Amino acid sequence: MRSHDKYRTEARTTLGRAVRSLKDPGNPARTYEADDQAKDMTGYVPNGDVHANSGIPNHAFYLAARALGGHSWERAGRIWYEALHNIGARAGFTDAAAATTAAAATLFGDTSAERRAVAAAWRKVKVLT
């Protein structure tokens, strides 16, 4: 991976280390010592705050974007943006998975590589079975 590619998947601090990693949430070697983000539902924190559990959907986005290739904003970004219109304030991860999978089908077709990549990403983070 080229060094500038890391800026696309990790929010950087002024110290040069990531605050969050979409590629590997909760890995303090990539971020900071106290990073305890869950990478998938096996690390889910019941009643956890947005920071503890945000690694799960972040990682799903990363996985979908990597599977689709190209620039993340061209397909995965469009899918997630479109899905925002169908996710309410009290939505859970299964709602987000359903909305992004539906958005992929609407934008690219029900049998498209995009819809399959999104569904596979949510399965990989153990939100969908």
Question: Could you please describe the fold and organization of this structure?
Answer:
It is a single chain. The longest helix is centred in the last third of the chain and has 16 residues, at 93-108. The chain has a two-stranded antiparallel sheet with strand order 1-2. Strand 1 (10-12) and strand 2 form a beta hairpin. It is built from 6 helices and 2 strands, in the order αββααααα. 45% of the residues lie in helices and 5% in strands. The N and C termini lie far apart (30 Å). The mean pLDDT is 89.
Layout of helices and strands:
Layout: H1 6-9, E1 10-12, E2 18-21, H2 50-53, H3 55-68, H4 76-83, H5 93-108, H6 113-124
Provide a concise account of the structure shown.
The protein has helices at residues 6-9, 50-53, 55-68, 76-83, 93-108, 113-124, and strands at 10-12, 18-21. By secondary structure, the protein is mostly helical. The protein has a two-stranded antiparallel sheet.
Tell me the structural class.
mainly alpha
Give, in order, the helices and strands. Answer: HEEHHHHH
> What is the spatial order of strands in the main beta sheet?
1-2
What's the count of strands?
A: 2
